[in-house]
Amino acid sequence: GALLVSERIDREELCGALSPCSLSFEIVVENPLELYSGAVEIQDINDNDPVFPSSQARLEISESVAAGARFPLESAQDPDVGINSLQTYQLSANPHFALDVQTRVDGSKYAELVLEKELDREEQRELHLVLTALDGGSPPRSAHVQIHIDVVDANDNAPVFNQSTYKASVRENTPSGTLVARISAYDLDDGPNGDIVYSFSSHTPAKVRELFALDSATGDLRVKGQLDYEETKLYEIYLQAKDKGAVPGVAHCKVLVEVVDVNDNAPEVTVTSVYSPVPEDAAPGTVVALLSVTDLDSHDNGLILVQVSDVNDNAPKSSQDSYDVYVLENNVPGIPILNVSATDPDLGRNAHLSYTLLQSDPTVGHIFSINRENGTLYLLTSLDHEDQVEFSMMVQVQDGGSPPLATNVSVSVFVTDLNDNAPIVLYPHPNTTATYTDVVAPGTPAGHMVTKVVAVDADAGYNAWISYTVLQATDPSLFSVGLHSGEIFTARQLREDDAPQHTLVILLKDHGEPVLSTSATVSISVAEMVKEVLTDLTDMAPANDPRKHVTFYLILAVILVSAAFFITMLSVGIFKCYKWRQSKELFNSSRSTLYRTPGPLHHIDAVRGGFTPPNFYHQVYLTTDSRQSDLLCKKPFTSSPLGSRQSTMRNGEPGLYHQIVGTASRLPTPAE
User: Fold this and answer.
1) pLDDT by residue (tens digit) across 416-453?
2) What is the pLDDT of residues 293-344, one digit of tens each?
3) Do 374 and 458 reside in the same domain of the chain?
4) Where is the Cadherin domain (predicted)?
């Protein structure tokens, strides 16, 4: 079981710059049969010196270059890795330059000269420096390069790159000539001093120059060789731009090129061992062969994939079982109000979902519509909160499998109220030419309810909350109105000198946004007796009523018939009693009949319907000659949902007359 080295091992030849360097192998153990994987890591020793590309380097630096300017130097190469690789650089002592050692992404080092003190060509035309490269071995190995610097009269402006670092990515199978990146620099000088030439920096590795090409005029960096992700994943390319002046100005930039892996390596199946023939009585689980599969690609490109065909065994599932949607009334038709979201873990057609609106209520289909593909619910018409507050419907989500599976989602749409209805006055009725007059007696104390303004608002909530205020009044100090009740009260006790007629304009406002309002006009009469009110109302009748004469003749006819009947009955009575009574007794009997006690009095109640207190009643007793013995009738002014409003008028319509029988204003004489 010993593992032996069969020949001399050279880590640099086997692995190059890769670290760690390992060799893999497999070991088969029999009885029992087992397979083991192993690896041998080749450790590096410091057996290589750093090497510069050349023993000398020449730089031309203008005397106008400001302190802080940087000049890349050619890098040394050391095939060793780890601590044995190139670790640092050293520069010989001088008054003008310092050395700045930088580290690349891959860990390698490179050096830059940094001008600390400006050059003066008249004082010193050239400088000679020594750059030493050291690795980290023990003892360290080193290499040297002579740097010759020519100080010349310079170009005033050096080229400037628009960015110091460029980043690009390219697939490893990209053909030669493909554009990777386009670098750009500008030079403020004119003529040759402003013409820019692009090139690789001196410390760009030779391997990079083999894989990439740079157009010196345009700055286009293109693929030149064959890239391999499995060999190098990232390239750090250093470029420079020089102008064509006598002493060219130089600018430097860096391009990071990431190589993207493609699936360009097929899996390799290795049969480690095969056991044949297999006995016919071999038990289940007996090992027949040992196989190993490898793929040089990375990530998903290196997996072995087994495709599993899908079966429609999952119903669509919505993110929630029900939705509550709130929509303002008076909406614009055609707006989307909801997106029903559902998922199906199946694949292909088994996961293709369609959305359908189940119409249990026929009106739902005329108001709502759903997009079959994405589940967006649209509102087709404008909604009215006062017409309908809530809509309920069911959305069915069905997949495309065979047989299809479906899920139902409940959707409730609530119509929220807007303040789009002004208060409507029910009493006093606004749509009539008749005058509503409420009566209050003089001397009525403060706080007495005279009447009430009744109104409704079709909106809901605060939009329907009505407040009442007095907008105009004949006497603002006499009446007040309840802010939310609409009840009109006396604000103080009525006096004798108060006006007999009062008109109040009541402003009704809701609490919506914006506020909507309306007004109601209330007329109030101050009267000591209802007779005064009735007298005023009778004066409202037309002066020349053609039915007046008809009424007079009807009354006259009734009086004549009654008088004839009375005389007939009186004659019969006298005839009957003539035989046994004296004439004086007959005269006394006749006189007592003329001066009989009045019968029951008939009266008319002038009662205002609505909200007048129940005890506000007055009885009116009329004599037979009052107001030219006219008949009185009750005629409604108009109908009202809150009650009828009646007043007593003279000369009313036929069929509505009610004769009033009263006591005589004076006693008849014996001749009468």
Assistant:
1) 999 989 999 998 887 665 556 788 988 889 999 999 99
2) 887 777 777 778 667 788 999 999 998 989 999 999 999 999 999 999 999 9
3) no
4) 53-161, 162-269, 319-425, 432-544
The kind and range of the H/E element at 14 are helix 11-15
pTM: 0.38
Does an H or E element contain 104, and which?
none
Q: Residue 603 contacts by C-beta under 8 Å, 6 or more apart in sequence?
A: 619, 620, 621
Query: Is the same domain home to 212 and 146?
Result: no
Cα separation, 467 vs 486, whole angstroms: 8
C-alpha distances (whole Å) from 527 to each of 497, 534, 611, 622 are 12, 10, 17, 19
Same domain, 342 and 399: yes
What amino acid occupies position 152? V
Which residue, 260, 284, 302, sits at the end of a domain? 260
Question: What are 244's two structure tokens?
Answer: 């064509």
409 shares its domain with 454: no
Question: Is 499 part of a structural domain of the chain?
Answer: yes
| pLDDT attached to residue 483 | 92
Residues 98-134: tens digit of each pLDDT: 999 988 887 888 899 999 999 887 788 899 999 999 9
How many independent structural domains does the chain possess?
Answer: 5
Tokens of 506: 């009541």
Which structural domain, as residue segments, surrounds residue 475? 424-526
CATH code of the domain covering residue 209: 2.60.40.60
My answer on whether 108 and 169 are in the same domain is: no
In a domain, 31, yes or no: yes
Read off the pLDDT band of 549 (50, 70, 90). low
The residues near 355 (Cβ < 8 Å, ≥ 6 apart) are 340, 342, 370, 371, 372, 373, 374, 375, 395, 396, 397
> Residue 610 and residue 616: Cα distance in Å, rounded?
12
Closest CA to 7 of 18, 20, 23, 19: 23
* Residue 23 covered by a domain: yes
Structure tokens at 209: 């120059």
Taking Cα atoms as reference points, which of 265, 214, 263 lies closest to residue 242? 214
Structure-token pair, residue 236: 């750090």
